């Protein structure tokens, strides 16, 4: 939590850089050497991120995680017990159901359609079960709930939501204006 501001600043800077340069640079690459190169250009950048992550992110020693053992089979089982597979699967299914509802609603079906409402309900139920699992798991949780406690964390999340909403509120009407002018 003490480094959260720095990580968020770097993430916001990269997001801003991508939002400013991504479309124009992608258009130049697509027009000059082909659209497939847009994907290939990301490989060295991703490799650079992996190298930086390798040197910056500190993994705890095996003795601190309870994985180290003389018996290789016991060590492997201990490692698998640390992975929160239940939480990961619940998060994927919960967000997938939510994404399905948001994609179908207003496009293929009206928002009042039973399929859209059912997807929302299933998403809420699965995400509630996900939070319960994260609170009870003995493995390393996908999303540690202690990170969501405290005034700083809550105010940070609220400000992020408001900044995201204002960003989309500005960009969506501009797209509609540009489309109608074209």
Q: How would you describe this structure to a colleague?
A:
- With 182 residues, the chain is mostly helical.
- The protein is built from eight helices and no strands.
- It has helices at 4-32, 36-40, 42-56, 62-65, 72-81, 85-104, 114-136, 151-181.
- Helix 6 packs antiparallel against helix 7.
- The longest helix has 31 residues, at 151-181.
- The relative contact order is 0.06.
Q: How big a fraction of the residues is strand?
A: under 5%
Into which percent range does the helicity of residues fall?
over 70%
Tally of extended strands?
0
Q: Name the helix and strand elements from N-terminus to C-terminus, one letter apiece.
A: HHHHHHHH
Major sheet attributes: none
* Rg (C-alpha, Å): 22 Å
pLDDT < 50 stretches = none
Mean pLDDT: 82
What is the end-to-end distance? 47 Å
**Count of runs of 4 or more consecutive helical residues:** 8
What shape does the CA trace take?
globular
Structure classification: mainly alpha
Q: How would you briefly describe this protein structure?
A:
The chain is mainly α and 182 residues long.
Looking at this protein, list some descriptive labels.
182 residues; mainly alpha; 0% strand
List the helices and strands and how they pair.
Layout: H1 4-32, H2 36-40, H3 42-56, H4 62-65, H5 72-81, H6 85-104, H7 114-136, H8 151-181
Helix pairs in contact: 6-7
